[in-house]
Amino acid sequence: MANIKDMFMTIDTSDDFSDENAVEVFADSVSQALELAARDLGIDVSLLDYQIIEKGTRGFLGIGRIPYRVLVTPIAGKAEHEELAALEQKLSREHAPGVKIDVDGTFKVRVIRSGIWLTVGPAKGKGRKITLEEVNNKLYSMKITPSDPGRVEKEVEKATGKPAKIGSWTADPQCDGDMSLEMTEDEMKVFAHFTPPRYAGKHMEYDDIIGALRKAGVKTGIKEKDIKDYLEEMDYTRPLLAAEGVRAKNGKDAQIEYKVRVDTKGVNFEEDESGKVDFRNLELLENVVVGQLLAVKIPAEQGVPGRTVTNRVIPARSGKDVKIQHGKGTILSEDGTELTAEINGQVTYKVGRISVEPVYVVNGDVSLETGNIVFLGSVIIAGSVQDNFEVKAAGNIEVRGTVQKAFLEAEGDIIVFQGITGREEAKIESTGGSVFAKFIQNAIVFAEGDVIVPEGVMHSRVDAGGRVCSNGKRARIVGGVVRAGDEVNARFLGADVSTKTEFRVGVHPKVLQQLADLTGLKSKIEEEQVQLKLNLRTMETQKRNAGNRLPAEKEKLLKDLQARNAKLNERMEEIKGELEEVNSYISMIEHKGKVCAERTAFPGVEIFIKDKSFILKDPYNHVKFALQGDQIRISEYEPPAGVDGRMIIQRRRR
Fold first, then answer.
1. Is residue 369 in a domain?
2. How much is the pTM?
3. Residues 167 and 255 in one domain
4. In what order do the strands lie in the sheet with 353-357?
5. Distance CA 337, CA 69 (A)
6. Strand pairing partners for 291?
7. Distance (Å, rounded) from C-alpha 439 to C-alpha 442?
8. Is there a domain that residue 87 lies in?
9. Where are the beta strands (DSSP E) in 388-486?
10. Same domain for 236 and 134
């Protein structure tokens, strides 16, 4: 059975929607729900849209405060991150497991001060081995006579890949290798150019190169490993970069990293699955909440001095500092490195300065040029809201023109200077304030507070937690349904042609909607139960006539019908319990609520005060209908407090 809080469910009749990225949030306000959802989804508040599943209340006739139940979903949703393809492993065949590699054997002869050294590398797989003849031919061409020919034969046979001494070196300047050094003009690099040895001439050694570098004035940056590797390769066709200095590194200038969108020149049009572009959702606004990070300063870097190979210092420039330029609605940290929002609102960026404005102004119509508007503050629209566009605000919404077949939702007041022409599809909803409009025609309007309409309400559904007042010179409420928690007060109620107009007062519209929904659901279940019982009776009769045996398909159908019947019975008991609780609550609340006509209440008007009704069959002038005891009584007209026929505009921006 539902509890009392269930009576405050939303009166919104739009279809539920779901999104795999959506989150359902319980909060004290829509803006708080968006803040919580933003943290949960890990995206900016500006990229969120919402649907109020269950509206909260600040407390009604002693009933406790009820949180909002809000379904929040990304507008554009987040950017989808495709998984990176597995990195291609560029492994050589020799590292591939289980693969046999055929590599020929190798050998080299190196002559240095310590002697003549032979290194024979082994063959792999089916590779060709080095022969003694090949080594001897090489030694012969180099004019080398080994001191121990047997050692040469043994090294070829073993092929260990390790150097073995096969003779002594004899100095011969005409055959020994040589080297020259080349230093660049900026003293940042030193190249070594080699002349390879001839015959049994000596190769250059590591100490030879280091000594030559020192003698040339090279003090730092010597590339020791590169020198050793170069000498080991014995490939003198290319020069060796023997030493290299360290270039100076200038420091980067300080940068401002903006955490919100400051460039509104480019607009991204997103296509749906069918390739259509929704031009109403341009996302031109950047909304932020209190405490949200707006910008971060990346400090300037210190320069790192360079050094030439001769150890001469090269100075470096340090980066330039910049400051975060902040405007109103923002807070700069003491160290000047972080800028946060001081208020909920819209981010503006002008002349390098970032600010947060609590009011967003549309200098014209809400149309394809602006797209839908979702703003965590108040919105002022200089023009009108055109068909099929939405405006949602955490503060007030003020429209200087008209509202056409559109949707407006605000936590504060909604003010429409030129009226609402809804063509039966407009929906205006103030979840925490009042609605003020010049007139309302063919629209759905809800306000937690009052609905004030100086020129009349025509063929609309209007709900107000407080009052619905229409007391201008031409004010008239005719057609449709008007529900108010406290009072309906107008110059004329209905029309002289007996147009059916329904007024319900004394009970909060949310409770009335809960009652209507439960009653409607009860009727639907009863209708289904009637048909279900007929089908069950038919199937059970067939089963008895068939000797309590039915084909498998019909047996399954019978069980499904029985299960559905049991489920409907269970749901019906729940609905009856909820209806009993709602009706009990309605009868428990204090006697209040009145319907007043300053001039005339016409036939065709139906008045409901709590659970009592009064159908007008004759016109009544200057009257008030109120509940006294168990009856609706008629007395002298009572004007609404604070309403004198003019449009009351209270600009309570949040």
1. no
2. 0.52
3. no
4. 287-288, 345-350, 353-357
5. 37
6. none
7. 10
8. no
9. 390-393, 397-399, 407-410, 414-416, 420-430, 435-437, 440-447, 451-452, 457-464, 467-470, 476-484
10. yes
- Domain membership of residue 536 as a residue range: 515-578
List, as own/partner pairs, every contact residues 266-273 make where C-beta atoms lie below 8 angstroms and the sequence separation is at least 24, other chains included. 270/76
pLDDT (tens digit per residue) in 571-604: 998 888 888 887 777 777 666 789 999 999 999 9
Give buried/exposed letters for 313-336 (b at 16+ CB in 10 A, else e): ebeeeebeeeebbbeebbebeeee
Mark whether 484 and 521 lie in a shared domain: no
CATH code of the domain covering residue 311? 2.40.50
Residue 342 lies in a domain: yes
C-beta neighbour count of 194 within 10 angstroms: 21
Residue 396 DSSP symbol: -
Task: Kindly tell me the sign of the dihedral angle through the C-alpha atoms of 186, 191, 192, 195.
Answer: negative
Which residue, 331, 350, 351, 333, is CA-closest to 341? 331
Q: Which amino acid is at 535?
A: N
Sheet with 255-258, side-by-side order of all strands: 255-258, 293-298, 338-341, 330-332
Residue 498 shares a structural domain with residue 549: no
Residue 417 in contact with residue 399, Cβ under 8 Å? yes
Q: Are 294 and 340 in contact (CB under 8 A)?
A: yes
Same domain, 383 and 466: yes
- Cα–Cα distance for residue pair 252/299, rounded to 1 Å: 9
pLDDT digits (tens, 9 = 90+) for 347-389: 888 778 888 888 888 999 999 989 999 988 889 999 999 999 9
Check whether residue 431 and residue 497 sit in a common domain: yes
414/253 Cα distance (integer angstroms): 48
Domain boundary among 357, 392, 414: 357
How many angstroms separate the Cα of 422 from the Cα of each of 262, 402, 404, 426, 456? 35, 10, 5, 4, 14
- Vertex 430, ends 424 and 433: CA angle to 5°? 145
Residues of the chain with pLDDT under 50: 1-18, 61-62, 76-98, 277, 645-654
Beta bridge partners of 420: 403, 440
Same domain, 474 and 535: no
Q: What is the 3-state secondary structure (H, E, C) of 106-141?
A: EEEEEEECCEEEEEEECCECCCCCCCHHHHHHHHHH
Question: What are the pLDDT digits (tens) for 410-439?
Answer: 988 899 999 999 988 899 999 988 999 999
3-state class (DSSP) for residue 306: strand
Q: How far apart are CA 562 and CA 539, in angstroms?
A: 10
Q: State whether 490 and 628 are in the same domain.
A: yes
Domain final residue pick, 74, 90, 118 = 74
Residue given tokens 């209806």 in the structure block:
579
- 362 inside domain: no
